[in-house]
Amino acid sequence: MAPPPEPPGPPQPPAPPAHSARSTYPAAPVPHSGAPFDVVCLGETMAAFRPAGPGRLADSPVFVRGVGGAESNTACLLARAGHRVRWIGRVGTDGFGDHVLAEIAAHGVDVSAVRDPDRPTGVYFRTGGERSTTGERPTDPALAEVLYHRTGSAASAMSPATVDRAAADSGRILHLSGITAALSGGCLALLYELTAPRPGRPLLSFDVNYRVGLWKRRDPGVLLDLARRCDLVFTGADEARAAWGAAGSAAVRELLPEPSVLVVKDGARGAAAHTSSGSCHVPALSVETADPVGAGDAFAAGFLSATLRGLPLRTRLRHGHLAAAAALTCPGDLAEPPARALADRLAALDDTAWGRLRLTPGWTTRKA
To answer: What is the DSSP letter of 339?
Structure first.
């Protein structure tokens, strides 16, 4: 059988609007009610393989299979927190596609994925450790070695023609990420269509998720343009510095005045949320890190869960930190989230008690 056609070349953004995004895109800090789902997450999910033991990929004879995808990670954590969640993606009709769908559904997520008979499910391999910020193979053994096989994948064929708009709009929140924008021209066109102003548009959540390797031959300014079209935006301070040259949370807000809520995460220093009413900063928690993978996706899940509950901004940031702490203290992409009663109790601590907290592996299973 002939190999499937390659996806379109480097995506090119459509011309930006000639007027202010703030006058066009409605502020929506609290999502509307009445939708079939609380959150719809759309994006790529791949079969993921991690070495069964320490060491480089080249030295690992045995790998543990799982799944990996920023948007599906967030979807699974939100479902485990008790929310109605749908994941939209595209996988092959191969065994890896079967595995991806089964794993996501096992967390209680409604799976609305198209099976592509002509393209494979993407696959990636990674070791433990922090992700490299250069996009090159790391020489530092403390950094993760990551190898992707996603060119021509089923997910890269997502486009306005292959994704059901009604399914995408079936939640109170539609959660997207910048990873999708880099996969193909069709994927970028899809994100521009989903973020366009329209009647009944869900609250749009956008996690920048800047990946240096995906944007080597593309303009990361596309991510800035997409973020300006959304209601709630998550970005890391390091991402904003690398992609846009913005040094510091206030500088990021100057670049992104349009979103109703802008969350800038700065690692162990904490996270800041900016709104039209002002800014709020919450220090990060002290944790015993077992694995840094998935902390950003978990933060988004914790913040979105608190947003759905209508909690105050400061409390939303604390729930984001607690969800991230659960990910940091548990190996793998998905950690057991804290029970709502425990998370609520910890989020309600005064500043002194919050600053004294130190979370270690297993803390999420303790009783409130």
So the answer is: P
- Higher-confidence position of 353 and 198: 353
Helices (H), 195-312: 221-228, 237-244, 249-255, 295-308
Dihedral pair phi/psi, residue 173, rounded to 5°? -125, 140
Q: Which residue has the tokens 């749908």?
A: 86
297 is catalytic: yes
What span, in angstroms and rounded, lies between the C-alpha atoms of 200 and 146? 39
Domain spans of the chain, in order of start: 28-365
Burial of 319 (0-12, 13-18, 19+ CB in 10 A): buried
User: Tell me: the pLDDT tens digits for 270-303?
Assistant: 999 999 999 999 999 999 988 778 899 999 999 9
Nearest-10 Cα torsion for 282, 176, 183, 101: 110
Q: What is the pLDDT of residue 6?
A: 38
CA distances from 104 to 65, 89, 112, 126, 202 (A): 14, 11, 11, 20, 23
Give me the CATH code for the 28-365 domain, please: 3.40.1190.20
Options 94, 291, 297, 344, the catalytic residue: 297
